Description:
- The chain is 84% helix and 0% strand.
- The protein is mainly alpha-helical.
- It has one domain (4-154).
- Keywords: Cell membrane, Membrane, Transmembrane, Transmembrane helix.
Amino acid sequence: MIDAEIALSLLAAHGVALVAPLALIEGPIVTILAAWLAQRGVLDVGAVTVTVILADLLGDALLYAAGRHGGRAVLRVLRLGDAQVDTLALSLRARAPALLIGAKLTHAAGAAVLFAAGAAHVPFGLFMACNLAATLPKSLGFVLLGWWFGEAHARLGGWIGWVALGLTLLAALLFILFRRRSCL
Length: 184
């Protein structure tokens, strides 16, 4: 994770030109810092918003491409056979919208699911539509959070990580409970 103070000084010095590459590395905290700088008149809030949304979607597409072109090899390294991989791929394609949107909103589970979607050959248009549906409210929420509470960025950085972890654990628990209930 990028240090908030380093990101803040870089963003203030170099403007929106650095928002996109930094947002690819650590989107939420960079979005909060950039929106706070926009609130203070250092950056343009419209440019920040569009940039973080596009950077998030670009990062998603890169993870999808990595999964599409190397995902099966990674799954084989994890000792999953072709039959298991095919079963997982069918399951992911059948539930793609719910899984993709849910994973994007939990933040922590996002990268693995986006990679798996590429490996499962989820249609790219569907993949991007689902990610856009999750990215818009998520990015706008972080822009608003930064606009209103950006000066608390040091406290928010740690808080966001714990919330993401908590949401991921909750999602995993709900998934396990749902699977158990549907298997009965």
